[in-house]
Amino acid sequence: MTETECTKDSNGSTLQDGDSVKLIKDLKVKGSSLTLKRGTVVKKIRLTSNVEEVDCRIDGSSLVLKTCFLTKI
């Protein structure tokens, strides 16, 4: 990634692989009845090639979350 292409959370903090983040909004998971609640902590995120998305595991499911709904802990 170049200096202009860094992954940032909703507050503008830079995210890195292995960071822990918290959801700032209830999110419905497409194709599932699962709803992720506000305040849920997600540990060990992985950055993707898209600076607006991160890959993570929640309850054994691999999900891609938009960074605009996350804040770094």
What is the CA-CA span between the terminal residues?
Answer: 22 Å
Say how many strands there are.
Answer: 8
**Which CATH class applies here?**
Mainly Beta
| Order of helix and strand elements from N to C terminus | EEEEEEEE
Rough outline: globular
Give the low-pLDDT segments. none
The total tally of domains equals: 1
Tell me roughly what share of residues is in helical segments: under 10%
List the strand order in the largest sheet: 4-1-8
Using brief descriptors, characterize the structure shown.
73 residues; mainly beta; SH3 type barrels; three-stranded antiparallel β-sheet; 8 strands; 0% helix; globular
What does this structure look like?
This protein has 73 residues and is an all-beta fold. The protein has a single domain (21-72), classed as SH3 type barrels (Roll). 0% of the residues lie in helices and 36% in strands. It contains no helices and eight strands. It has strands at residues 21-23, 27-28, 35-36, 41-42, 46-47, 53-58, 61-66, 70-72. It has a three-stranded antiparallel beta sheet, with no helix packed on it. A three-stranded antiparallel beta sheet has the order 5-6-7, with no helix packed on it. A hairpin with a 5-residue loop joins strand 5 and strand 6 (53-58). It is globular. The model has no long low-confidence stretch (mean pLDDT 92).
Give the SSE map:
Elements: E1 21-23, E2 27-28, E3 35-36, E4 41-42, E5 46-47, E6 53-58, E7 61-66, E8 70-72
Antiparallel strand pairs: 1-4, 1-8, 2-3, 5-6, 6-7
